[in-house]
Amino acid sequence: MKLVFATNNKHKLAEAKSIIGNDHEIVSLNDIGCNENLPETGNTIRQNASQKAMYVYEKYGVNCFADDTGLEIDALEGRPGVYSARYAGNDCDANRNIEKVLTELRDVANRKAKFRTVIALYINSEKHFFEGVVDGTILTERKGSEGFGYDPVFCPDGNNLSFAEMTASQKNAISHRGRALEKMKGFLI
Ligand code: IMP
What we know:
Layout: E1 2-5, H1 10-20, E2 25-27, H2 45-60, E3 64-73, E4 80-81, H3 94-104, E5 112-123, E6 126-138, E7 154-156, H4 168-174, H5 176-188
Parallel strand pairs: 1-2, 1-3
Antiparallel strand pairs: 3-4, 3-5, 5-6, 6-7
Helix pairs in contact: 1-5, 4-5
The structure holds inosinic acid (IMP).
């Protein structure tokens, strides 16, 4: 089946292709000629994922899924959460988001956090949701140069490496999005 992944993030696309690419043809927004910023105004990651997928499904008439991810830090009462992408301000990049988190956690002993991804799948007039979570800790400094976003400061439980020190397949095997994608894969088969 051909499925549009409502993203142009090359890391996310590679993750999705490696997990469900053998069974389904995964194409990006660029591939269907969509270069717009998708609406993302929800109060939860589930609402945002749903909004993005519905927009593409309705406007382009294609089976489609979208993901939204939040980094939830215990000592910050779940922040940045749904605001993870623009935590340091509207025009901020990953570096500044990380800087803000590290500053807020300076001298904080409890560094527990989790990544949560929700995938919304719009297919044949139905919608379905799949969630994936990974528990871990926020490091005191950046480690590694792979991946994207908060990867350099997130160390999943049971590992000595940050996500940014892992190969793509190591990360996929345990990551929030990897887990959500595996659930979707099980549903689609
Ligand atoms: P979105 O789901 O793409 O909107 O991502 C929300 C925020 O979480 C952005 O700042 C992303 O860079 C970050 N993010 C999403 N997925 C990951 C990941 O797998 N690792 C690290 N950061 C991520």
